[in-house]
Design goal:
The protein is α+β, with helices and mostly antiparallel strands. The protein has 1 helix and 8 strands; from the N terminus they run H-E-E-E-E-E-E-E-E. The strands form 2 sheets. It has a 5-stranded antiparallel sheet, with helices on one face. The chain has a 3-stranded antiparallel sheet with strand order 6-7-8, covered by helices on one side. 13% of the residues are buried.
Length: 164
Amino acid sequence: MSRDRHPAFTLIELLVSLALSGVLIVLLNSQITNALFSDAKIKNQIEYRLEIENVLEQVAADILSASHQPNGLKSIKLYSTENELQLHLKRFGVSPNTQKLHGIAVIWEFNAEGISRSINSVDGQYRRKLSSKKINAKIEKIGINLIDLVLTNPSFTKSKLFAL
């Protein structure tokens, strides 16, 4: 009896190819997982940077709308310790209840608990937490009417100049 042999893969060749395919699938899976993790980390960093830029714009708006003292300077006071920075300013605002113009005290706090903004007015006290991530803040006085607010966390530093 003669058998005609057809060309085919041996069992060993099939097992080797399956093992190589398994190794490739594991490597590809780890690369995809790392890429997704990196993408989420970068997205969180970008969102936090936008959050900080938004805070700086709100601080700028508050400083711009601060009332002036008799000496011509804005009514802004800075309180700074090693772990905390507070920015107190006074401005005028319209009461939502009475529709009358009243004085408002705005307090910005930058500390280990994050960033918060408090408003004290005749209508009550309101506090809003704008960020819950720890941030280091410091004020550098550039001149008599110019300050630089520097916000730092482990991944970046952001600063903005303010005219008083």
